[in-house]
From TrEMBL:
Keywords, alphabetical: Cytoplasm, Ribonucleoprotein, RNA-binding, Signal recognition particle
Domain of life from the UniProt record: Eukaryota
Region forming the signal peptide: none
UniProt subcellular location: Cytoplasm
Quaternary structure, from the entry: Heterodimer with SRP9; binds RNA as heterodimer. Component of a signal recognition particle (SRP) complex that consists of a 7SL RNA molecule of 300 nucleotides and six protein subunits: SRP72, SRP68, SRP54, SRP19, SRP14 and SRP9.
InterPro entries recorded: Signal_recog_particle_SRP14 (IPR003210), Signal_recog_particle_SRP9/14 (IPR009018)
Molecular function, one GO term: 7S RNA binding
Protein name: Signal recognition particle 14 kDa protein
Organism: Brassica oleracea var. oleracea
Entry's Gene Ontology cellular component terms: signal recognition particle, endoplasmic reticulum targeting
Biased composition (Low complexity): 113-124
Family: Belongs to the SRP14 family.
GO BP of this protein: SRP-dependent cotranslational protein targeting to membrane
Function text: Component of the signal recognition particle (SRP) complex, a ribonucleoprotein complex that mediates the cotranslational targeting of secretory and membrane proteins to the endoplasmic reticulum (ER). SRP9 together with SRP14 and the Alu portion of the SRP RNA, constitutes the elongation arrest domain of SRP. The complex of SRP9 and SRP14 is required for SRP RNA binding.
Length: 124
């Protein structure tokens, strides 16, 4: 995993979306992080110091993983840039199949069979 600055991360994310336009996926995850170990966090909290949390953003296309860390003062700029990238690549976004789709079709089939069991009417 490569920890990049904000602008190189956004450029690399754009190239990931471009490469996966026809085939493939890009996974983006966001997580709250302080970028400190548990021991460092305990020392800071026992000393009464506040811990500055940041947003750790990771992106992967199964071949390459990149990440960046965004602080509170840069989050609006990142959010706007990320939204622009997503809007530019909306045509490549695909809806994932839901796992419970099979269950819903089975339920519809059961309902369909119960309505077709009524007696047919004869035409005279």
């Amino acid at each position: 995993m490569v920890l990049l600055q904000l602008d190189p991360f956004l450029n690399e994310l754009t190239s990931m979306f471009e490469k996966s336009k026809d085939k493939g996926s890009v996974w983006v995850t966001l997580k709250r992080s302080s970028l400190k170990s548990k021991l460092q966090k305990r020392k800071l909290s026992s000393a009464g110091e506040s811990i500055e949390y940041r947003c750790l953003i990771r992106a992967t296309d199964a071949k390459k993983t990149i990440s960046t860390s965004v602080g509170a003062k840069d989050h609006l700029r990142f959010q706007a840039s990320y939204a622009t990238i997503l809007k530019a690549h909306m045509t490549a976004l695909k809806k994932r199949e839901r796992k419970d789709r099979k269950k819903s079709t089975e339920a519809e089939m059961k309902e369909g069979t119960s309505t077709t069991t009524s007696k047919p009417t004869k035409k005279l």
